[in-house]
Structures are given as structure tokens and as C-alpha cells.
Amino acid sequence: MTHAAHPPATLVEILEDAASRYGDRPALRLKLDDGSLTTWSYRELDRRSRLAAWRLRARGLRPGDRLLTWSPSTPALPAVYFGAMRAGLILVPLDLRMAPEAARRIAERSEAVQLVIGTGRDAPDPADADLDRLPVTTVDDLTSEPGAGFPVDWEDQVAAWPKPRPEDVYLLIYTSGTTGTPKGVILTHSNTAAGVAAFRQAIPHMEHRVVSVLPLSHLFEVLVGLSIALSLGADILYVRSVNPRVMMQSMQQHRMTTMIVTPAVLDLLWKRIERGVEERGQLANLERIRRVARRLPMGLRRRLPVIAQIHQQFGGDLRLFLSSGAFLPPSLQRAWEDIGVLVLQGYGTTETGSGVLNSFDDHPAGTVGRPVSGVEMRIAEDGEIQFRGPTVTQGYWEDPEATAAAFTEDGWYRTGDLGRLDDEGRLVLHGRKRDMIVLPSGFNVFPEDIENALRVAGLRETVVLETEPGRIEAIVLANQAPAIPAGGRSRAIAGAIGESEDLTEVRRDIDARVRAANATLAAHSRIAAWRFWPDEDFPRTHTMKIKRNEVRAWAAVSAPLAVREAE
After folding, report:
1. Whole-prediction pTM value?
2. Which domain range does residue 454 map to?
């Protein structure tokens, strides 16, 4: 089979090109609760998308109508996505972890006319968000085999419809809408197709077996985990269970080679590795072997003692992580690459799609790469990262004021993120503009830089805030403290308070780690004090980002323990 003469210009063309090249190869799989597998080939996915397209039109939907989707990841969901594109509809995906009020607001803002939901025990209830007022169907019903009364010429009917054009809007990704007015980011076929073409140049040519853990309501998963993966002929496995043991078992059985992740997912996986190595009494050995491994080629690293055991947990073929969505601590990237797993980091907001990306040959820790092909980037005088180019949105759905505010007068999109270029022209992130701390002295402090110093000192999960003018504090998770006995690692500080000896030891340990981090920071960036977060984990978004505003609001009111000054 040969590749298309020209790169596909729409997502439907990407699917059709993949179906013609990969045919009966597995495209999408779903592991069910009973352990059985549902598998669709590339040809089957293409056919099911046409069935979904016909049924959507049969339900009265017309080009330009907005279609809500609210479903866990399953082979039927991408089929509905591609079916909606064939029918000329505009998808409005809702996240499963979204609050009902947010889902209702998004439905109203988008003026959606119908809702498609998933099935099974983890499927949402439309009534919870007052969405049962809309006509509702399921992803399984839309993609099922033709039944009685189905026209024999249904495929000819679909084939006769106008093809989607590159400039057609196919997707609206909304902000959560929990408070205030949600904004719908407009994305066209050409926006995403340009991102696919750019990523294809950076991703290694290899067999890709993917375990999908990010929701298909997130652009990064639509772009990389679905569109790019299909264009590469990947074998994608969806897992319904979020149980870590089931996830690891699925990765092993699928012999996963590639995974699309956020830094939070990478960190969770690394914690699990360290915990297993520690239980076997091999943690010190791993640290020694990592120092040797980083001087060896990737393939040899994976064969070293202890490291080889780690790889067997993932099936023995893990080669590549594609990470985006938040700051990736350099120490975490180095940890994975020490054991022979390449971490390619990219950066872009929902509005910019693919912005910058590291490459197979150039991926130093701490940088997110250079602009992808066709995309321009600049750093404004205040440090804000700005973009323009084919992957960048045209604005927000029926919101001219928000659109105007998001762009400069000369047409560059304002990301709201801060960064700088290193000596080689790669982008280095500093965090969100709104999170930057401006001290009374005039110095700028970037919380993520301090959080990374704390991570290097042994505190993985922290949030750095300015609690009073010029006063920098760190909010720390109690259950990550190394001094807590292994059996108590999952408890919150409320459980630790009852054991004063344990608590004293934990606080002493954290004090030492804060001082170690401060020793690496400029004087104006040092932490004046720290306090425990009262729960087992910070509040997070559906992509595992910490909700800083909620942490900031808590810190402004009170703390469950008196603040202990760092010496």
C-alpha cells in the first residue's frame, strides 16, 4: 500500500487514508470488565463511522448542528466523532468528570440539539445535568449493525454527501463553565490536520501499540491519541477501569510501546515503579544503575538489572511517552529516559493545538521544543508566549469579546503562559502568567520553578503561593512525605495528626527538604514557610492538573496546622 500523494486535509481523509493503508489491522480495542476484548479493525472503524453518520442524519441533524457527546472512551466514540464529521456536524464533547452544572451551561452556550452518551456502569445520567430535555441516543446505538428497515443503499447515500472541507468547523472544546461563562474554542479540520502533519515529523517510525488513558473530550487525546495514532497505524486499547492494577495489567497484556500522557500520569506511573522497587529492596540499586544507564544507548538501558524487571511490568516493549498539558519536571523526564523510555514533550493550549514540540533527536530535559512546521511563536516583552499559524483557533464560539481579548492587534494568540528561549532556541516554560508572583521588590517569581526545586529535594507534589505580599509558602501533601511508614503512605494529614511521633518526624523531614530546595534558589525565590494540605490529594481537573485557585482560596482562609517556618 502507498501513502497518499498529499497529506490529508481533514480528519475524515485521515481516517479513510488509514483504512486504505492498514485495512484489517487492529485499530481500536476495548477491555471489558470481564477481561474480554472488543476489537475493531481500521476498515471496521471506517464502516462504523459511516453507519453513525447515516443514523445522525436520519435523526434530523443537519450540517452545522452542535452535537453533545458524553461518554467514556470506547471504539464506538471515535466512530461517532468521525460519523458526525461526515454528516457535517460540530462536536461538543463533555468530560465525564465535569460537574453537572458545567455540562448544562455548555449545552446552553453551544445551543446543542442532541446528546450522545456512552453505555455501561460508568456512563453519565443526562438527567443529572438537566440534559434529558434533549433527544438522547447512545454511541452503541449509532454504530450498531444495520437492522430491519435499514435502507440497502445507505452506503451510497453517505458517499453522495458533500465531503468535509478543511475550513469547516468540526469541534468546540469548552472551558469547564463551573463558574462564569464557558468559552467554546473553535477548531477546524485544517487546524487539527496541520497538527497531525507536524507531529508525524517528530514521532519515531515504529510499531505503535497504545493504551489510552486520557479522555477523548481533551484536544490532546483527539489530536495525538486518536488522529495521529490512526495515521501511524497504531493499535489503540481503551481500558474502562481506572484501577492502577488493572491499568498495569492492560499495559502488560497489550505489550504497550507508546502512551499519550500528562505529566501527572507520568508521575503516578513512576511512583508505582519506585514503590515496587522499594518493596523488593532494590531502590538503592536502581539509583546506581540509573547513573550507569544514562551513558548508554536506549536499547541497552532497558536490558540492565532492575530496569529489565521494570519493563516487564509494561510488557517489555515500552519505548515512548508523548507528554503535554502541564509542566513536566526535568527530573521526572530524566528518570524515565534513564530506564530507556523516550519522553517527547510538546506544548500548546487548546486554542493553539500543536505549538512547539521536541523531536526524537533533540529533547533535552526542561525544554518543550521549537515551533512545529508552519507555526510562528514569539515571546512578548512581559514574557508571554504568543502564536499564530495554521493550528491556531479562529476564536471562541459566538463570543466576539472573548475572541478579541485573546488576540493581539497584529493577530497573535495570547496564551497566558510565560516562557523564554534557551541558547538553542528551544522554549522553556515558566508557568501561567496569572500565577506569577510579583514581589514588592519588583522581582518576578515563577511558582513552577520553585516546585521543581522542591521535587528535586524529594517533595513531588507541592503548590507554591504568595500568601501575603512578599511571603512565599509551599503547600505540601502529607502522604508523600518519605518519613511516613510504607503502610501509611496513602493517608491524609488528618490521619497523621493522631500519631505525634510520626507527625514530628514527617515535619522534620519536610523542613530539611524545603531547606535543601531553598539552597538552590535565588534569595528572592526562597520559601518562607510551608503547611500541609488537609486532604490526600490536591483538587484536580480531568487532565490531572492541580486547581490552584482552590488551593489559593483555602490558604487565604486558614490552615489545619500552624505554619512551621523553614529555617
Report:
1. 0.85
2. 436-565
